[in-house]
Amino acid sequence: MVSIQAWVTRGSVHESAKVAGISHFLEHALFKGTRRRKVGEVAAEIESRGGEINAFTSFEETAFYTTLASRYFREGLDIIADMMINPIFDKDEMAREREVIIEEIKRAHDSPHKMVSMNLWQNAFPNTPYGRPVLGFESTVRKINHTTLKSYFNQNYHTGSMALFIVGDVESKKALELASKMFAKAKKGNAKTPAVTFRVPNNNTVKIVSLSRDLKECHLQVAIPTPGISDPSIPAIDIMCSAIGQGESSRLYQKLVKETRLAMEAHFGLMATSHCGLASLHLLTAPENMEAALKEAFAVISAAGREGLDPVEIERVKTSLEADVISGKETVEGYARRLGYYYSEFGDPEYEGKYLQSLLSVDQDRATDALNQLLQKRPIVSLVHPIGQKLDKKGLSNAIGAKPAKPKPTSKQSGLPEKTTADGICYLTKPVSTLPIISLRLLFPGGSREESKETWGQGILFGRLWTSGTRSFNALGIAQLLESLGASVHGFVGKNTCGLSVECLAKHWKEVQPILNECLLHPVFPESEFETEKELVLREILAEKDSPGQLCQSNFLSAMYGGHPYGRSPLGTRETVSKLQVSDLKRYYTDFIHRRRLVVSSVGSFSQGPWISDLTALLKQLPADGKSPNSAIPVSRTTSLQIVTEKKEPLFQSHCLVGFLATSFQDPERYALKLLSSCLAGQGGRLFLELRDKQSLAYTVAPMNSDSPEPGVFGFYIGCSPEKLDRALSGIRSEIDKILEKALDSKELDRAKEYWIGRFELELQRYGAQSMLYGLDEIYGLGFDHSYKVPEIIKAITAKDIQTAAQKYLVPERAVISIVHNQTLSEDQVRRAWNVERPVVAKSREKRVHSSL
Questions:
Q1: Residue 605 near residue 478 (C-beta atoms within 8 A)
Q2: Are 594 and 625 in contact, with CB atoms under 8 Å apart?
Q3: If you placed Cys at 724, which of 174, 314, 434, 720 could pair as Cys (CB 3.0 to 4.6 Å)?
Q4: Using 50, 70 and 90 to split pLDDT, how confident is the model at 766?
Q5: What is each CA distance from 828 to 601, 645, 784, in whole angstroms?
Q6: CA distance 729 to 5
Q7: Using an 8 Å Cβ cutoff, are 811 and 661 in contact?
Q8: 306 near 383, Cβ under 8 Å?
Q9: Sheet arrangement for strand 497-505
Q10: What is the DSSP letter of 284?
Q11: Who contacts 567 (Cβ-Cβ below 8 Å, separation ≥6)?
């Protein structure tokens, strides 16, 4: 693999207020054609080779990057250079893309998390570039045109502002020579970054800004301004924030989530830019608990200032940060991004090592002093709360209280794991010495589909509580030990499997092993932890409808699957979860955690013989047998159009999901539909080019393709402005009709195949992804080496195979349509959009599914 990243030291803070959002607009514009490539060809050329290409804009930089197989390095570098040097800014394309960006702005206004953050920065740094959102405003973006963009590009994109980072399986000298050649025609410019000057206001009182939305929970951030990232005080502030509020063992999480149960989320962290930053407390609470949670959180923070931070807390954070530096270089994209970030912020791509050393030098006294200095300032409070909730701003203000006295780049992984079997256990082991990391997965047949109607939600609670207490360790003890090692041991429960996931540095395996042994063999599911998690799940069930996209998908699956387990939320219902007891989790453990059909998949830095011996000594203590999973449950395919809509307001974007019951692992058309999804996906895919690029209907439009042991789903998602809903739905129908009526041409088919095969290499960089994939393929009966056979299957599929599969599964008259809209929709309105200029399906054939499910 290789990642090629071009970073430009120009972001939203370098814009004038009149053109706020132009840096982000320019990020989009560079994908819309060059002197050598037409619209769509930039992404299509990368994706046709199985790679990824994208970009992002922040306050201080804009970056363009591609990650692809190293055999395509020259092509990838040529595309990045072409974008950075030869954009054309076509008038009509820029007008269309403006509409897409406005959709993205609207989407941000539907996100409670983003609105809390935007309001926080706006009020912390008013009348400064950092107070404006990176996306800009609809009013400013509408004034930006092709001429404005070209002028801004010519002024800001040149050799003085650009830097190139290449990480991966390429020879450095040749890469440098090729890059120098390809960027030789780049415009020359001064390396000096435009000055950003402003004065941060000193608040004498607590500033509170709030918004009301159709939510069930309160999203709240409280922040105190800090200096910029180069200030000598930043390492101590960074360590202090992480010690108090990062991780499950932190005092903030333990007090707010575990002990008092006043919040579902509670963490404290640092967000720093070149010129300023925020030490920010984040809380997610029930409306009735908001004030109490805020008061308790500041009591915890203030106590840390009075009593001093614990040296154990400091060391835990240092170890975790050190582990993060190593794991952040596991993928070529992650490695290159870190180089780009540290170059952009510090002028030195290798500065991460220096910053880490400055963090490791922070002691208890420096961290405590940093906290007390921050607490002398008055914070800014930003929150989004449910409509109708009355805010007591004075109470919130009082709740806060008074002032208190270099590794080598990751190389390409190859080779299959080795399979051995003993005592009914399948071991898959793949030793890799590139990085000192171990990834382990223990997979048992089971999952949420095994729950009865009376115990829905049992699996999710079991997974969360499996590692929350054992015969020898309580939840806090487990969290403290693991976080001090930068390791994790987590339970998981999916639809069809459950298990344990372990990640650690190889040198810490012996310290992690006792925790794994205890969690696997002697979990106790403490009553207090159970009640806390149970209450959190009950709140999450309420909050599921807060996200319009999630609500759209939940309604869709319920309509598609009916009573099948795949159609319900893994969280369960408030009625079933309320009745669950600790005994239900213990019964789940007894039923499914045993040796029969257990698959143990490991990838990482270990010696195979001793490794298997360690695992065998542990796993032979499990029971030999237990409950067998239920047999396959039939899923009835719909025989008529089904529509489910829900009203949610205020809503800046409508969400629409159209889908069909599709293939299982056993269906021969499985990979034909995967290729169809590849044809539709990405910036070079049909959906993006037609519905986003040509018609400017949406910021996000994408295919949805899932397969599983029982039938999965093939679908189409689009998020658009409410007034564009009819056109969006009609547009999806048109694309489906094209698929059904005409086979893919050879160019599209070749692109789809290369895209899929290239993605395979891309997705298997992380050890965790490899260990999970091998394990799941084995436990599902496909064989641990199945994924290595798939490229040949993919290559053999024809355009006719894809069209035949589409005609079998994608029957428009049997679609399920789920919509979340800002007004009540009638079924007739949806039908008209779906069947526009087509014969209307007879009403007697259609089953009415129209309610708030």
A1: no
A2: yes
A3: 720
A4: confident
A5: 52, 12, 49
A6: 36
A7: no
A8: no
A9: 418-422, 425-431, 599-604, 437-445, 497-505, 488-493
A10: E
A11: 557, 558, 559, 560, 561
| pLDDT (mean) for 559-578 | 92
CB 719 within 8 Å of CB 30:
no
Helix, strand, or coil here: 251?
helix
Sign of CA dihedral 442, 500, 768, 607: negative
Structural tokens at position 120: 């926080």
Task: Point out the least confidently predicted range of 59-68, 281-290, 736-745, 763-772.
Answer: 763-772
Tokens of 209: 């800004």
- Nearest CA to 604 out of 594, 614, 596, 595 is that of 614
For residue 379, the 8-state DSSP code is P
User: Would you say 14 and 134 are in contact if contact means Cβ atoms under 8 Å apart?
Assistant: no
User: Which one-letter amino acid corresponds to residue 449?
Assistant: R
Q: CA 592 from chain center: how many Å?
A: 30
Q: Which two tokens stand for residue 320?
A: 């975790």
Place of tokens 């308790």: 296
Give the integer Cα–Cα distance in Å for 238 and 804. 57
Cis upstream peptide for 791 (omega within 30°): no
557 and 567 in contact (C-beta within 8 Å)? yes
Six-digit token pair at 429? 């082991």
For 176, 792, 798, 808, the CA distances from 668, given in Å and listed in that order, are 47, 14, 13, 12
- Are 210 and 383 within 8 A, CB to CB? yes
For 361-409, what is each residue's pLDDT tens digit?
Answer: 888 888 999 999 998 888 999 999 999 999 888 888 888 864 444 333 3
Number of H helices, E strands in the chain: 32, 20
Q: Which residues pair with 706 in a beta bridge?
A: 713
Question: Given the structure tokens 């009625």, which residue do they identify?
Answer: 575
Whether 10 and 23 have beta carbons less than 8 Å apart is answered as: yes
Side chain identity at 409, as an amino acid letter?
A: P
DSSP bridge partners of 282: 221, 267
Q: Quick check: helix, strand or coil at residue 33? A: coil
What pLDDT sits at residue 842? 35
Where are the strands (E) in 69-217, listed by range?
Answer: 162-168, 207-213
CB atoms within 10 A of CB 781: 11
**Residue whose pair of structure tokens reads 């040149």 in the numeric block:** 158
698-706: strand order across its sheet: 642-647, 816-821, 654-661, 713-720, 698-706
Mean pLDDT of 800-823: 95
Q: Are strands 207-213 and 380-386 parallel, antiparallel or unpaired?
A: parallel
Closest to 117 (Cα-Cα) out of 103, 134, 129: 134
CA-nearest of 45, 117, 105, 103 to 74 is 45
3-state secondary structure of 648: coil
Residue 55: alpha-carbon gap to chain centroid: 16
- What is the CB neighbour count within 10 angstroms for residue 68? 26
